[in-house]
Design goal:
The chain is of the alpha+beta class. The chain has one domain: Electron Transport, Fmn-binding Protein, Chain A (Pnp Oxidase, Chain A, Roll), CATH 2.30.110.10. The protein contains 3 helices and 8 strands. Strands 1, 2, 3, 4, 5, 6, 7 and 8 form an 8-stranded antiparallel β-sheet that branches.
């Protein structure tokens, strides 16, 4: 395991404003969209905000499998794992951003506001022209 490469990949994920997230749609096809990056815990966990009425939530309720991708210049960090839909008031409060009000006019208590918690199982890195794969238990 290349610790320097992983450290760089963690910084790419942590500093990214947006990520691409893929889910499996109701026809079994991958569906990719961009989403604002809220918080990361290394490469193991990532948190995003979305609406409970969104197609992302609809698809993740049926199939939690997902992939998240970050890009910075020629570097690419791809995570494969599962999404959990969280409505915990404490986590919603912790991750709330002022600009969310444009999407959730009811504020942190808006019933449509939820958090997607992504937990990584596999990591695929292309950083500084080096490739690395990792498996998390």
């Amino acid at each position: 395991m290349n610790v320097e490469l992983i450290t760089k990949a963690e910084a790419i994920a942590r500093n990214a404003e947006v990520a691409s997230i893929a889910n499996v749609d109701d026809k079994g096809y991958p569906r990719v969209s961009t989403i604002s990056n809220l918080k990361t815990d290394g490469l193991r966990k990532v948190w995003f905000a979305t609406g409970l009425g969104s197609s992302k939530v609809k698809f993740f309720r049926k199939d939690s499998k997902a992939s998240v991708c970050y890009r910075d210049g020629g570097n690419n960090v791809t995570l494969v794992g599962d999404v959990e839909i969280i409505t915990s008031p404490e986590l919603k409060e912790q991750l709330w951003q002022d600009w969310f009000i444009d999407h959730f006019p009811g504020g942190v208590q808006d019933p449509n506001y939820c958090i997607l918690q992504f937990t990584t199982k596999e990591v695929f890195l292309w950083v500084d022209n080096q490739y690395e794969e990792l498996l998390f238990q």
